[in-house]
Amino acid sequence: MEFHEKIKKLRNDLNLTQPQVADYIEITYQNYQLLEYGKSKPSFDTLVKLCRCLNASADYLLGLKDFNER
Predict the structure, then answer these.
(1) Among 12, 14, 22, 9, which Cα is nearest to 49's?
(2) pTM
């Protein structure tokens, strides 16, 4: 599973909307959509905020581990 698929799955598992996640990680809704559609990659700061929001490890989101350790 790729990064954009993981963040979408985790978001759905937490019953969060795209605008809610975008607001939490302090980016625009449109920029979040680009992340979730695989058209953009997050900055380091955005990755950290995504990990906190989605309760996921960076290793999992980046594909370094096959399971989420959080």
Answers:
(1) 22
(2) 0.92
pLDDT tens-place values along the chain, 70 residues long: 999 999 999 999 999 999 999 999 999 999 999 999 999 999 999 999 999 999 999 999 999 998 887 6
Alpha carbon distances (Å) from 39 to 5, 14, 53, 65: 12, 23, 20, 22
Q: How far apart are CA 28 and CA 56, in angstroms?
A: 21
**Phi and psi at residue 39, in whole multiples of 5°?**
-95, -5
